[in-house]
Amino acid sequence: MELANTLSQDGESRGGVLAHLERLETQVSRCRKKLEEPQSTQAVESALGTRIHELRRLRDKLRAEVKQHQARVKASTTNVEPDQTLEITEQEILKRKRENVKAILQAYRFTGISGKLTSRGVCVCIGTAFEGNLLDSYFVDLVMQKPPQIHHHSIPVFIPLEEISAKYLQTNIQHFLFTLCEYLNAYSGRKYQADRLQSDFAAFLAGPLQRNSLCNLLSFTYKAEPEGQSFPFCARLLYRDLTTTLPTDVTVTYQGTDALSTTREEQRAAHENLFFTKPLHQVFTSFASKGDKLDMSLVS
Amino acid sequence: MRREPAGDVGRAKEMDETVSEFFRRTILKIPMTEMMTILKTWNFLSENQLQTINFRQRKDSLVQDLVLLCEENRASLKDAALLDIIYTQFHRHQKVWDVFQMSKGPGEDIDLFDMEQFKSSFKKILKRALKNVTVSFRDAEENAVWIRIAWGTQYRKPNQYKPSYVVYYSQTPYAFTSSSQLKSNLPLLGQALTIASKHHQIVKMDLRSRYLDSLKAIVFKQYNQTFETHNSTTPLQERSLGLDINMDSRIIHENKIEKERVQRVTQEIFGDYPQPRLEFAQYKLETKFKSDLNGGILAEREEPLRCLVKFSSPHLLEALKSLAPAGIADAPLSPLLTCIPNKGMNYFKIRDK
């Protein structure tokens, strides 16, 4: 058909020849390709074949590893024998020792004075307590230079820290810390008593409890029986010694205008004595437990 | 704005016009958002009484109603003064506070501070000196007391609109006073404070700020409250000052060592705690001119040069702390700047030694 097209006109016969040559060329290249095709497909085939082999190999390898691992796990869980524990490494022993020491260091704060070394010196923690109750902790961060100095602290401003450090810090650090400990524990104890009175025995108080920062002056009006007919007494407690939790001066007075009966006078004197000898909240606990009767046997 | 309470014509003592006006102006100052809280804190008008007031009306009418209610309940100047104290406690930043330090003689007895004695003594001293003075007290937390003083003269009644305030924590040597416009009363105030609190001397510190709580933190040394213990879970060293040096591992800082030094020095000086808040530091210089060059006009000058340098900031100490890490100043900063909380000063006079 193509031949018929090319031979129809003169002008096109040359084009026809060229076209014919072109056709022959394409035929040749087509034949060549056909020859190569099985070769390239063969190459692709063989490449794919090798790939399949590789993948199979990898798969077998992984299967073997999984089997091994499972066998190992099985072996380790079944063999819980004493000789296995010998394999605990040195590292684990040291780790346990370290945690032990850390726990002891943390527990040290229950002794009242504990500390931690810092880059400049030591940070001392003074823990306070009263009657077995743990109360606030206070810190003093010391710079251990030739004259030791206080870097910063959490001691309340009304505690005479400057006085105490002026007396002892340079010469005897131990004494400094023990004195500070005394003051802070006493302050905490007094504060605890005042707080207990205000919160637990509010029913006994006829008016607000007057106190100050150091809790070394307490003034209040109270009744020994909250609902009873007893007359209110005024108590004024002074703690002149800042290292104690019991008052140094106690005055219990009667508020009314008429003279006190003898029983009331005895009561007043007994109360005064109680405040001298027992912590404040314990006195009120004894008031509460006495009920209606006034037990004179409490006077020791 | 006075009206006879109905049915009480014979019995009621009418509220003084000045007191009424004082109530009106004091209540008017209170922002609407705080009105309920402040009135409840004042506790002069009961819940039931407050419920009779419409709090949704315009402020002027609300204030009128409240003043009327106060009049009906025979509120006195004392009650108004208390309301003024409460307003000031809520808005303490509106005043500028000075700090005074008192001292006792050596070997003094233990301070057995009695709040009632202090109050009566303080009031007595002022009243003895000035016939016309209004003194009011309000107890505050931590065994402190807020004192309000309205000053008058021998012949004039106290001016309720320019009161002085004093905040005193018992058994401490410090008192905080609002800078009063009436400076002439300061010596008397100091005297009353000193004697009533059983001290001998009083001295004004070179420390001033609007932030009363920061002043307290500075003089009570409460601003640095981080302590190393065995019980703390966060290690102190691992916190950085906001310098994210290791943000991107592809970036290498050439001056990494210097940056770390600056960070370390800043942390040593300023610590890890939030700085107390001050608004300015002022340095008055009176020094002779010092020059390396020989000669020159100023070098021959005998008189010292006077100059005033003032640093201002919404939060001066935090700003100073960030100067070196930001690269604006060298670290360590001048001790004149870093000693502010330690020395409890933000006013300095620098003279030649």
From TrEMBL, chain A:
Name of the protein described by the UniProt record: Centromere protein O
Superkingdom of the organism of origin: Eukaryota
PANTHER family the UniProt entry points to: CENTROMERE PROTEIN O (PTHR14582:SF1), INNER KINETOCHORE SUBUNIT MAL2 (PTHR14582)
Gene Ontology cellular component terms for the protein in this record: Mis6-Sim4 complex; nucleus
Provenance organism: Balaenoptera acutorostrata
Coiled coil: 52-79
Keywords, alphabetical: Centromere, Chromosome, Coiled coil, Nucleus
Matching InterPro entries: CENP-O
Keyword Cell membrane in annotation: no
Pfam families, alphabetized: CENP-O
Principal subcellular localisation of the protein: nucleus
Compartment list: Chromosome, Centromere; Nucleus
Keyword check for Iron: no
Record-stated family: Belongs to the CENP-O/MCM21 family.
UniProtKB/TrEMBL annotation, chain B:
GO cellular component, one term: nucleoplasm
Top-rank taxon, per record: Eukaryota
One Pfam family hit: CENP-N
Keyword Nucleus attributed: yes
Localization per record: Chromosome, Centromere; Nucleus
GO BP annotations, alphabetical order: CENP-A containing chromatin assembly; chromosome segregation
Alphabetical list of InterPro entries matching this protein: CENP-NAC/CAD_complex (IPR052011), Chl4/mis15/CENP-N (IPR007902)
The entry's keywords: Centromere, Chromosome, Nucleus
Family in the record: Belongs to the CENP-N/CHL4 family.
Name used for this protein in its record: Centromere protein N isoform X1
Gene for this chain: CENPN
